[in-house]
Specification:
The chain is an alpha/beta fold. The chain has one domain. It contains 11 helices and 9 strands. The strands form 3 sheets. It has a 5-stranded mixed sheet with strand order 1-2-5-4-3. A two-stranded antiparallel sheet has the order 6-7. Strands 8-9 form a two-stranded parallel ribbon. It is globular and about 50 Å long. The protein starts with 13 loop residues before the first helix and ends in a 15-residue tail after the last helix.
Length: about 300
């Protein structure tokens, strides 16, 4: 079946075309280009809201994979802490200032309708598939795991959905930005985690410290999008509200955060809280709110097939 995607196509990169394992010969110095929207790419795509990120071999691997996928008409987007770092130079600098340790794996989003094409992509590049998930798609498990040769760097691809504390459907959202998820989706993927960690808080602070709340600009948090989700889903609303409070409390634990950035984060946290609270709620939200915490509203991550 031919791949179908609205992903922008980038010029062919001979480093990846060289054959299995060639992707690992790349160094972090290769991450130099900039993206202005989802247009054509000169070299490896990187932070659109600043000059250059502080790239690593891991970001190199991720961005080159996304670029090669785009060459083949396959949609892949970077998520997780690596997505936060790779999206914007200012966010990357804030993560460095906060002492956020580098992630060890690559997390990507793709589309289940391109499952066969994704399998072919990773196989052609010499990646080894996780045997336990080799035929998981046939059983409705929407996740792929591969290991890059020879070091075995783990690359996890979520298909359509993120199943963690809450289930988020990213179909129709992957086209909103390139090469990462949009700012709002990167933020949402972190805020939905019920048992939020210090690493997650630092990622969120780095996002809110570098991006305003606005629906009209690409380099901003799409607030109306977040409000649409939280006015429909009481559980998601409740977790987000809890986490916004946690982040506000922990800001004082980061003396290395510049004063102006701290003020901007506090302002945006307050606006998020106020707007989420004041947004008119759907009937199903009000019905679920009547039950409240007497019934579980989130999944324990270790119990979720991710």
């Amino acid at each position: 079946m031919a791949a179908h995607s609205s992903s922008p196509r980038a010029p062919k990169d001979d480093n990846l075309a060289a054959g299995p394992g060639a992707i690992l010969t790349l160094t972090s110095g290769a991450v130099k280009g900039k993206v202005a929207g989802a247009g054509s790419l000169g070299s490896t795509p990187t932070a659109p809201c600043g000059v250059d990120t502080m790239p690593t071999v891991l970001t190199d691997l991720a961005l080159r994979l996304i670029d090669e996928a785009s060459q083949r008409g396959i949609t892949l987007r970077l998520t997780g802490s690596l997505g936060v770092r790779g999206h914007c130079a200012e966010s990357a600098a804030l993560l460095e200032a906060l002492g956020r340790e580098l992630p060890q794996d690559v997390d990507l989003f793709g589309l289940s309708r391109q499952h066969r094409d994704l399998t072919g992509l990773f196989k052609s590049l010499g990646f080894e598939a996780e045997r336990a998930l080799a035929h998981s798609h046939e059983y409705g498990i929407q996740r792929l795991i591969y290991y890059a040769p020879p070091e075995g760097t783990k690359v996890e691809v979520f298909l359509d959905l993120l199943r963690m504390s809450h289930t988020l459907d990213f179909r129709g959202r992957l086209e909103a930005d390139y090469p990462t998820l949009s700012v709002a989706d990167l933020l949402l993927a972190k805020l939905q985690i019920f048992r939020i960690t210090d690493k997650d808080v630092k990622d969120i602070v780095a996002l809110l410290g570098a991006h305003d709340l606005n629906s009209r600009e690409r380099e901003s948090v799409d607030l109306p999008y977040l409000l649409r989700l939280t006015r429909e889903d009481w559980g998601l609303y409740f977790t987000l509200k809890k986490n916004l409070g946690v982040i506000r409390e922990r800001l004082g634990q980061y003396p290395e955060l510049p004063g102006a950035t701290r003020a901007a984060v506090e302002r945006r946290l307050q606006e998020l809280e106020e707007r989420i609270e004041s947004e008119p709620k759907a009937l199903r939200w009000r019905m679920r709110a009547a039950v409240g915490t007497r019934m579980p509203w989130y999944e324990e991550v270790e119990n979720v097939e991710r």
